[in-house]
Amino acid sequence: MRTLNKLKLSLFSLILIFVFGCNSSESNNTNLLAPTISIKLVDESGDFEEVNVEVVDVLIKMDDNSDDDNGWISLNSDKKVINLLDLTGGVHEVLVDRFPIPTGTLKQIRLVLGDNNTIVIKNDLDVGETHDLKTPSGQQSGLKLKVDALIEEGFTYDFVLDFDVDKSVIVAGKSGNINLKPVMRVTTEVSSGIIEGSVLPADESAVASVIDTKGTSEIEDDEVISAYTNYTGDFALWGVPTGTYEVVLTPVDSNSKYKVTTVSDVEVVNGEITVIEPAIQLALKVGAITGKILNENVEVTASVIVDGAEVQVNTNQEGVFLLENIPIGVYKITLTPADGFGLTVTELNNEEVKEDQINDLGNITLPEA
What we know:
The chain is mainly beta. It has two domains: 2-281, no CATH class; 286-364, Sandwich (Immunoglobulin-like). The protein has one helix at 165-168; strands at residues 2-5, 17-18, 36-45, 50-62, 72-74, 80-83, 93-100, 104-113, 118-122, 128-134, 143-151, 156-164, 169-172, 177-180, 184-188, 193-200, 206-212, 223-228, 234-240, 243-251, 261-268, 272-275, 280-281, 286-293, 300-306, 309-314, 320-327, 329-337, 346-353, 358-364. Strands 4, 5, 6, 8, 9, 10, 11, 13 and 14 form a nine-stranded mixed beta sheet that branches. Strands 1, 16, 19, 22 and 23 form a five-stranded mixed beta sheet that branches. The chain has a five-stranded mixed beta sheet with strand order 2-15-12-3-7. A hairpin with a 5-residue loop joins strand 9 (118-122) and strand 10. The longest helix has 4 residues, at 165-168.
C-alpha cells in the first residue's frame, strides 16, 4: 500500500446520514477575499444498470439552521443529468468548483433535483429497461443536508456528497412505482481519507466495504462504507475516517465461483489516499475430493483438470487420496495405477465439488487390465 498526500485544512469530521427537506434561495454578497467552496458527488453503491438523476442546483444556508424558505444562497451549479453508477473507481462529478461564499458557519447544504430522473434495470430477458424514478411529493423541493462547519476568510473548503444508491431507490409495493428517496453522507476531504484499489478478475463485479465503528463498541453505531467496482475492477471508498480497517470484497453474484475476500490492516489517514497494491485477487470457492483404493499394495495417482492444468495427488499407505483446494464445479476424476500392477486407468465422471465440502467417493476397486 502507498499513501498520496492531499491538501489539508483545519476542518472537523462531518459524516452524517441525511433525508430530504425543502426550502428556496436568496442571493448574498461576497468579496474578493471570501472563502470558496467545492462540492463533489460520488456514488456509494447500487446494483442497477443506470441510475440517472437530474441535478438542478446546489444551495447553502449560513448561520441559520431553520427550516424556513429564507436565507438560501445558490452556488450556481450547472443543471445536468448524472448517471450515479458512473461515479465508481475513484470517479467523481464536480457540482461546485471554488465558488465564493460568505464567512460564518455553514449550517446546511441543499441539493436540488429535477424531474428527469430514470433508472435502467434488466428484465427477465437480460435486456435493460428504462423506468421513471418518481420523487414523493413531500420531497420534491430538494435534498437538505445538515452541516455545521466554520467558514473562515481565505480558505477553500472541499465537501464530498456520497450518494447511497441501494438505500435511495425504493420499489413501492403493488403500484410498481420506483421511487427516489436519496440517502447520502457528507464528508470533508481533510476530515476523512480515501481507500482505492482494484480487484482481479476485473470482470467479476464486487462490492468493496469497510465498517466505521464510530469509536464505540456498540454495533448499532457502526456505519458501512461501500462502493461497487467499475468495469476495470477499480473501486474507491470515500469518507473513511483515520484508522486501521479490514477491506471486504463481496462478489455481487451470489452464485459466483469467487468467495468473500478480505484485506487486513489497511491504514487510513485523514486528507490522504491509501492505495492497496498489488491488485486484490478474489479467492475462489473451493472444496475437496477424497476416496479409498481397495486394491492392495498399489500406488494410485488421482487427478483432475482445473482451468487447463492437471492437479494430482498420490494415495497414502492406506490407499486414501485427497484432492484439496479444488474450485467448485463438476469434474472428471482420473485414477491411474502405477505401472506393473496389471490394473487399468479408471475415470469417474460428473463428480461435483461444493464450497467447503469434501466429496467422498467411497471405496473404489480398480479393475484388472
